[in-house]
Specification:
- With 407 residues, the chain is α/β, with parallel strands linked by helices.
- It is built from 16 helices and 17 strands.
- The chain has a 6-stranded mixed beta sheet with strand order 2-1-3-8-7-6, sandwiched between helices. Strands 14-13-15-16-17 form a 5-stranded mixed beta sheet, with helices on both faces. It has a 4-stranded antiparallel beta sheet with strand order 10-11-9-12, with helices on both faces.
- The protein is globular, with a radius of gyration of 26 Å.
- The two termini are 47 Å apart.
Length: 407
Amino acid sequence: MNAVIITIGDEILLGQILDTNSRYMARQLGNMGVEVVKMFTVRDDREEISRVVGEAMEISDLVLVTGGLGPTKDDVTKKVLADCFGTQLVYNEEVMGWLKELLAGRGIALNENNKSQAWLPENCRILRNFKGTASGMWFERGGKDLISMPGVPFEMEHLMETYVLPDLQKKYPRLQLAYKMLKVYDIPESELAERLEDWENRLPAGIGLAYLPSPGLVKLRVTAKGEAIARLDAYYTTLKESLKGLRYTEGEENAVEKQFGVMLRSKGKTVATAESCTGGYIAHLITSVAGSSEYYKGGVVAYTNEIKANVLGVNVADIEQYGAVSEPVVRQMAEGVKRLTSADCAIATSGVAGPGGGTEEKPVGTVWIGIATPERTIARKFAFSFTRERNIAKAAVKAMELLMEEL
């Protein structure tokens, strides 16, 4: 089964927002065994939308559309779709009831723009949006489906999970695809691909390998389709044998911060953070996990030497002698925030994130990470990349991994 994804909005083409919707939808469809053959991004223009919708319906069995369903004049998607499917917009009393209920709960007065959201194509199935005012619309023609959803990511995901994915699985029960994931740490993607070349060359039709690099790790996805699903486990086992000597973990969950939380809960430990070069990113990752208040005490963003000394208790003489990016400093930062918060464990980072500030002795990408536990304090030096964002991300991931190893 083939699918086409269409995102609508001038703001995407202008680079004002990132199109995360296409990525999400493609991944969900791929998990079901639906192959996405094309993606389009179009302006809020009636003729352009109509042309692309027509092309998509010609080349695919399923079309997913997001965007252009708001209450303002530039949101023209539902009007265009009504024309494409030979119908008209009609007032929907039930939808108006939903809108009144939703807006009243938010303390928002119902205005004419909101009321326009109750005018919808007559011959489509309406998908109730509990997260916003724009309803989803499901059209069918000639055995093909077109589903239009809001462009707001959390609203689109709500409709996908509530209606689209479950109903597609019921309608097309023969869709078959299976995959297994594992994550390989501390090896570049190119080196890993070279190591797995012979294994990959022996894969039969219907089984494939995908490399998905992330900071500090490479995710490997082994996918099987149709009859090849029965052979997936056997090839997955031989893949693990090919990785002998490398550090890897199995499963789709790739968020280190979630593994980090599971580890701390299992050990009954709490943690605090003292961050310089990572600027609070480790604290952000930790607290992005629901329930992290059970094990995360808090943190200090000690970006200046003054804060390192006056708040965390780092010895000024050590900063002057060794520099802020040094073993003695991160050790004292970790011990200082551990003492300050009464946490069981602590993480500290200090480094040269870049793009400037590097020296011959400490080039961009140099990061010291300190770990304090009830048993001991350690510090390790790393040389990451030349890119600021990657240095911050890699340092944050590695810091959490180091504490997990210590525990």
